[in-house]
Write a structure and sequence with these properties.
Layout lengths: L2 H18 L4 H11 L5 H46 L29 H17 L8 H15 L5 H29 L3
Helix pairs in contact: 2-5, 3-4, 3-6, 4-5, 4-6
Protein name: Phosphatase PAP2 family protein
Pfam families: PAP2 (PF01569)
Keywords: Membrane, Transmembrane, Transmembrane helix
Amino acid sequence: MTDAVHSIVRADQELFLWLNGLHTPWLDSVMNCITYKYTWIPLYILLIALTIRAEGWKKGGLIVIAVVLAVVAADKITSGLMKPYFLRLRPCHDPSIRIVMHHVTDCGGMYGFASSHASTSFALAIAWFSLLRRKVPQMGFLFLWAVVYAYSRVYVGVHYPLDILVGALVGLLVGYSFVQLYYIFLKRYYHS
C-alpha cells in the first residue's frame, strides 16, 4: 500500500471511529431499524403508487422498471465487482478496529468496499427523482432518505465512510445512466 493510500485509509478509519462513537441506546434502536432493508418496503410501495398515479400504468410501469434495473445494476457493481476486487474488510471484521468500535447489528459479509446500501439507495433516489420531479416535486426527499439510510451503515458499524461515499457515487452514476437509457427507450419505442 502506498503512503497516500495508507493515509486515506487511516483517515477513513479515524472518521469511522468518531462517527460510530456518536451513539446512544435509543439511537441504536432507531438506526438498527433504519438500516434494515425491509423497513422500507412501505416506502417502495408508496413510490410505485405515486408513479402509477402520476404517469398511468404504461408509462409508470416503465419508470418502475427503469428504477428497479438501476438498483439491481448498482448492487451488482458494488457487491459483484467491487467488494470481491478490493477485499476491504468491513470495520466489524477488521481486527484493528472491531475491538474499539460500537456494534449495533450483525456484521454481514466480510468485505464492505463499496457499500451496496449506499449505491442502491442513491441509484433509486436519482432515478425516481429525475423521472418524476415534474409531476411529483416532493421526490427530492429521496436524497435525504438515501443519506440517512447510507449513514446508518456507518453508525451500526458495518461500513467505513469511504465505502458509503464511493457507493453513493456509483449509485448516482448508475441511476443517472438508467434515466438516460429510459429517455432513449421512450423516444425510440414508446408511443402513447
